[in-house]
Every structure is written in structure tokens, then in C-alpha cells.
Amino acid sequence: MTSTQDLRVATGLAPPRAFDAACRMVVDYLARVVPLDAWVVTRVADGQQTMLVTSDSGYGLAPGQSTAWSSSMCQFMVAGAAPRIVPDTRTVPGLAEMAAEAAAHGMDVGTYVGTPIVTGDGHLWGTVVGLNRRPVDPEAVDQEPLLDLLSSLLSSVLEADTAAVDSARALERAVSDSESDALTGLLNRRGWERWLAREDERFRRFGDPASVVMLDLDDLKTVNDTHGHDAGDRHLRHCAAVLRSTIRSTDPLARLGGDEFALVAQLGVEDAHNLVERLRDALDAAGVPCSIGAAPFTVAGGFPGACAEADSVMYTDKRARRGASGPRE
What we know:
This protein is α+β, with helices and mostly antiparallel strands. 47% of the residues lie in helices and 19% in strands.
């Protein structure tokens, strides 16, 4: 085979529009041509390596499982410190020590095969990985040209699919009045739920880092009871303005009703924690304090799981704030 077109003809890999479909085709094809115990497509982001698509017959690997990038064999391959094809991991420094540590935890890795998936500007996006519990004959995995073609195919589909999603998101940001909160101009609950439904599949497809942040305005009932509902409306609009000024314009922000707000930040866990602290400081300084909870999106739990967890954390924060400063609404 001498070209990506030859590969598509030989394997039946017609160029799919969705990146996850391309990943499934590549993994299934590799499992047939180079039958190792597992083939996996992973996403590398926020210091984690997360499995997106798997074909496993020996390890029990599944989409959504994650490990620290610092403990991944792929780090050596990407850095050029280890070959992409290692029939016997005991023969390569770095991989040998990591394989011994994995074996101590019941996961034998005798053979490692890996190739990077890169973005259009050359940055690491993820990897295609093959693993076998026992070392294999070097000829059985002598497929470097095939790996080059498959990783190139995935990079091309990734770039096209990412561009298509970016265009769709730009159109979707022009939401209808029925999806906007009349008081604050933010998404309303309907718009929020429609955004989550659309984006859940996209985030699962690409394994992008994201965190859900739920907020509950602490003093709205007091403002309404003391100064009237017009003052309460101004309080809500002020809170919305502070939130808008603290997050990126592309991150969806919603008023779910009453004194509840929510947003999705396309950030990993540590950066999301820093954002929560910035939000808390900005809201307190503006006189619109909120109880806040955040939780990361995961491939396994999706946005429904992240929303439920963030809501729980927010109510824990609310109880703690009430205990520290007296009853709040």
C-alpha cells in the first residue's frame, strides 16, 4: 500500500464524517490485521490519557477508563525515548520498568505498539495503542507504514470533524427567544438542556476536558423581601453580568430559574477549580455571593453525571455557608 486511498480501498475505510466512527473502523481493522490483546484510541488532555474506543480481548479495557499521562507507556513513544513498535517491553528502558510496575498490579504488558494522533498544527491530541500480555514475534507487529497511514487518516478526520463542530456551534449560539431567559439574556433551562444534549455526544466523541459549574444566588429572597421584586430582578441581572465578565464568551451560561445559574467551562479539573475561586471572589466583591459546585465531564458519565455531581457539591457548599454565616436563601 502506498497511499491513504489504497488503504481505504483495501480495508473498506470510506472516509467517515464523525471522528468516533473513524476510530472504531481503525481499531477494528487493527484487531483483525495485528491481533493483539487490545487496541485502543486514547485522548491525551489535562494530564490524563482517556480511552475513547477499545477493542479488547485480554485486559477488560473500556471507553472512559483513564490514567495519568505520567504513568502511560505512550509518553516514551511520543517523546521519542522508545520505539513505536516494541515486541518485548523488557528490552526497552523506561517501558521495562513501567511494565514491571503494571504486572505487579495484575496487568501484564509484554508487547507495546503506539502511534500519535496529532492536530493540524502538529500538537499531540491522542494515541492509537496496541497491547499484548505476552511478547510477540517481531514480524507479527512489523506494521509501521500501516500505523503511519492510520494515524494520518485519523488526524485528517479529526481536523474535518472539529471544523464541522466549530461551525455548528457558531450557528447554535444564535439561539431563539424560546431558549433565552428574558430577564438576563442568558440561556434558559430549555436552552441549557438542549445545549447539553447536543454537546454530550460531541464531548464523548473527542474526549475534550470540561467541567460543569452550578451556582445558587445566596441572598435573593432577602433582597426581594426587603427591597421588592424590582430590586431582586436587578440583583439577578447584576449576578449574570458578573458571571459573563468572568468566563469566556464561548462557554455556555444559563439561568435555570429563580436564583439558579449554571455554566460549562471547557477546562480540566485544576483549571476549573481555579475558575471557581475566581467566580467566588468576583461575585463576593460585587455583592452577589453564590454557593458554587463544580464537577468534571467524563466519557463514562457524560454531562448528566457531571450536572448531578456539581449540583450535589453546590448544595454541600450552601449548607457550609449557612453554617458559617447564618441562614441564607
